[in-house]
Amino acid sequence: MSGTSEGPRASAGTAPGAPAAPVTERHTTAPAENGPARTDSARTGPGGGDAGSIASELRDYRAAFNAATLPMGVVDGRGHVVRANEALGGLLGTPAAVLAGRQACELLDLATDDRTWHAYREVLLGRRSRFRCTRRLKHPDGRSLWAEITVVPMTGASAAESARVLLTVADVSDRRELQERLRHLQMHDPVTRLPNRTLFFERLASTLETPPYQDDSLPSRQHARIGLCYLDLDGFKAINDTLGHRTGDRLLAAVAARLTDCAENDASRNAGGSRLVARLGGDEFAILVEDSAGTQELTDLARSVLAALQQPFDLAGQRLSVSASIGVVERTAAGTSPTGLMQAADTTLYWAKADGRARWTLFDPERNAHRMTRQSLSSTLRPAVERGEFTLEYQPLVGMADGVLRGVEALVRWNHPQFGVLPPNRFVQIAEEDGSIVQLGRWVLRTACRQARRWQLDHPDEPPLFISVNVAVRQVWDSDLVADVAQILAETELAPGLLQLELTESAVMGSGGRPLRALQALSDMGVRIAIDDFGTGYSNLAYLSRLPVSVLKLDGAFVKGFRYEDGTHPSPADETIVEAMVQLAHRLGLTVTAECVETAGQAERLRRIGCDTGQGWLYSRAVAPEQIAGLIGSRPLEG
Question: Which residues pair with 52 in a beta bridge?
Answer without folding.
Answer: none
